[in-house]
Specification:
Elements (H helix, E strand, L loop, with lengths): L1 H31 L3 H14 L3 H17 L3 H12 L8 H15 L4 H8 L3 H4 L4 H17 L3 H9 L6 H17 L3 H14 L7 H20 L3 H9 L8 H14 L3 H11 L10 H13 L3 H26 L7 H9 L6 H9 L1 H22 L7 H59 L49
Helix pairs in contact: 1-2, 1-3, 2-3, 3-4, 3-5, 4-5, 6-8, 8-9, 8-10, 9-10, 10-11, 10-12, 11-12, 12-13, 12-14, 13-14, 14-15, 14-16, 15-16, 16-17, 16-21, 17-21, 18-21, 20-21
Length: about 500
C-alpha cells in the first residue's frame, strides 16, 4: 500500500507537467494560426502555472510576439524585457533583443528601449547580433547619450555605427556633426554634415532620408555663417529643397547671410517669402528683426518703423500671454502637452503650433496616442473580458502611459519656455532698433532733412541670374510657385 501510494503521488505530480506542456503546444499552435487573442490567453496560462522554467521562458517570448502582432507594443516590450534583463544566459536572449528592436521601430520610441539597452549593455551578448542590428543599437544608445548631454559617450557610440543601414549611418553622422559644432570644431562639423549629403542622394524618394539630408544642408549653412563665409553660407541655404520641412528656416536664416554680404535686396526677398500669407501660422519673430536692421542700414526710417510696429503688434501680446501662461500653476505636467495638442489652456496658438511642428514632439505624440489606443484595444478584446491577462496588460500600459505623460509634459513646458526666452531676446533687439531709429530721425531733423518718405521712385529691376529666370513685378498677389524667388530693389537713402 505504501508503494502504491508513493506511485500515485508521483503520478499526480507529473500530470500537471504533461498538461502544461500540451498547453504550451496549444498556445504555439494558436500563434501560428494567427488566433492571437486565444494564443495570448493560453500562453499567459503557461506563464502563470507551468513549473518548467524553459516552458515559461518560451511562453514569455511568444506572448510578447503575440502582443506585438496585435500592435500591443508596450505590453510586448514588458515581456521581452523580462527575458532580456536575465542576460545572455537565457536561451531566448537574442529573441528578446529582436522583439525589443521591433517594438522600438513600430512605436517610434527614442527613450524606453534605448534606455533599457543602455542600462543592460552586454557587449558579448549584443555582439551575437548581425552587423545591421549592432549599428542600430549603437545609434539608439548614442542618440540617447547625446540628448543626455554625455558628449564623449555619445561620440563613441555614434562613431561605431557602420554603413549597413544608410539612414541610421546618416543620422549618426548628423549627430556627430552637431557634437563637433558644440565643441567648436567647425571644420570637422562641416565634414560630418557633408558626409550626410554625399551618402544620401539628392533624388532619394525615402522621406526619412530626405529629411536628414535637408537638416544637414541647413546645418552646413549655419556653420559657414559662424565662420563668416557668408557667400558659401547663403549658397548652402539656397540648396535646401523648396517646400521641404527645413525650407522655411533656411530662408530666414539665409536672409542673415545675404545681409552680411550687403545683398539687401536678396535678404528682403527671402523675408518677403517667410512673412507671406502662406506662412501665416509660423512663429517668425526673427524675420522682423532682420527686416528692421536691413532697412535701418539703408536709412529707410519709415520702413524700419513698419517692421518694428509689425513685430510689436504681432509678438508683444504673445510674450505677455506666454508669461501669464507659464505663471499659472498647472495641475500636472501633462497639461502642457495637452494644451499644445488642443490649442487650449491659454497658450498662444502661434507658440503651440510651433512646438507641434517639432519632429521630437511628433514622435512623442505618436507614442502617447498609441499607448492610449492600446489601452482601448485591451478593453475591447471580448475573449479577455474579466481575465487576469487583461488586468495585467492594462496595468503595464497605464503605468507606462502615466510616466511618459509626465516626461513629455515637462519637455513640452521646456519648449514653451524656450520660445518665451527667444521672444524676450528679440523684443530687446526690436526695442534697440526702435531707439536707434528715433535717434537717427532726430539727427536728420536737426540737419533739416525729411524723415518721412512719400512714394519712392521705381528702381531698376534686379539682375536676372540666368535665362532660367524671368523678371515679374510684385503686384500685391502671392503665388505659391514664386515663394523663395523674391528679390527687392532697394537703394540706400543715407546720403
Amino acid at each position: 500500500m505504501k508503494t502504491l501510494l508513493k506511485l500515485t503521488v508521483a503520478l499526480s505530480m507529473l500530470l500537471p507537467c504533461f498538461a502544461y506542456a500540451s498547453t504550451l503546444e496549444e498556445g504555439l499552435r494558436l500563434f501560428k494560426d494567427e488566433e492571437y487573442e486565444d494564443a495570448a490567453l493560453t500562453l499567459y496560462s503557461v506563464l502563470q502555472n507551468d513549473p518548467n522554467p524553459d516552458n515559461r521562458d518560451q511562453a514569455i517570448i511568444y506572448l510578447g510576439e503575440t502582443l506585438v502582432r496585435m500592435d500591443l507594443l508596450v505590453p510586448g516590450l514588458f515581456y521581452f524585457q523580462n527575458i532580456f534583463e536575465v542576460g545572455r544566459a537565457n536561451r531566448y536572449y537574442l529573441n528578446a533583443i529582436e522583439g525589443l528592436m521591433t517594438v522600438q521601430e513600430k512605436l517610434h520610441d527614442q527613450l524606453l528601449v534605448p534606455t533599457l539597452f543602455d542600462n543592460n549593455l552586454d557587449p558579448k551578448g549584443f555582439g551575437q547580433l548581425d552587423s545591421g542590428r549592432i549599428a542600430k543599437v549603437n545609434f539608439m544608445i548614442g542618440q540617447l547619450k547625446y540628448r543626455q548631454g554625455k558628449k564623449r559617450e555619445a561620440k563613441a557610440y555614434l562613431s561605431a555605427v557602420g554603413s549597413e543601414n544608410r539612414f541610421i549611418w546618416a543620422k549618426s553622422k548628423y549627430l556627430l556633426g552637431l557634437l563637433a559644432a558644440k565643441e567648436q570644431r567647425d571644420e570637422d562639423s562641416i565634414a560630418e554634415f557633408q558626409a550626410v549629403l554625399d551618402g544620401i542622394p539628392a533624388n532619394s524618394i525615402i522621406e526619412q532620408e530626405t529629411r536628414i539630408r535637408n537638416l544637414a544642408q541647413v546645418a552646413i549653412g549655419r556653420q559657414l555663417y559662424g565662420l563668416e563665409r557668408y557667400e558659401e553660407s547663403a549658397a548652402a541655404y539656397a540648396n535646401v529643397p523648396r517646400f521641404s520641412e527645413a525650407w522655411f528656416s533656411s530662408m530666414y536664416e539665409g536672409a542673415w547671410a545675404y545681409y552680411k554680404q550687403e545683398n539687401y535686396g536678396r535678404a528682403l526677398g527671402e523675408l518677403h517669402s517667410v512673412t507671406s500669407p502662406y506662412f501665416t501660422s509660423f512663429f517668425i519673430p526673427e524675420a522682423y528683426v532682420i527686416q528692421g536692421i536691413t532697412y535701418f542700414v539703408n536709412c529707410q526710417w519709415d520702413r524700419v518703423r513698419r517692421a518694428v510696429e509689425t513685430y510689436k503688434s504681432t509678438y508683444s501680446p504673445v510674450k505677455v500671454s506666454l508669461n501669464e501662461y507659464l505663471g499659472t500653476n498647472k495641475e500636472s505636467a501633462k497639461s502642457y502637452y495637452e494644451d499644445v495638442v488642443s490649442l487650449g489652456g491659454g497658450i498662444p496658438a502661434e507658440v503651440a503650433r510651433d512646438v507641434r511642428k517639432s519632429f521630437k514632439f511628433r514622435e512623442y505624440h505618436y507614442m502617447l496616442e498609441h499607448m492610449k489606443w492600446e489601452s482601448r484595444k485591451v478593453a475591447a478584446v471580448s475573449e479577455w473580458s474579466n481575465s487576469r491577462l487583461a488586468d495585467d496588460l492594462m496595468a503595464v500600459i497605464e503605468d507606462n502611459l502615466s510616466g511618459f505623460e509626465t516626461l513629455v509634459g515637462n519637455w513640452t513646458k521646456g519648449q514653451i519656455g524656450a520660445r518665451l526666452d527667444s521672444l524676450k531676446n528679440f523684443e530687446s533687439q526690436i526695442d534697440l532698433i526702435d531707439l536707434e531709429v528715433s535717434e537717427a530721425e532726430v539727427t536728420w531733423l536737426d540737419a533739416g532733412r525729411e524723415t518721412l518718405k512719400g512714394r519712392r521712385a521705381r528702381l531698376p529691376r534686379p539682375d536676372i541670374e540666368s535665362d532660367q529666370w524671368q523678371h515679374w513685378s510684385f503686384r500685391q498677389e502671392y503665388w505659391k510657385g514664386e515663394l523663395g524667388y523674391f528679390q527687392h530693389s532697394i537703394r540706400s537713402e543715407c546720403e
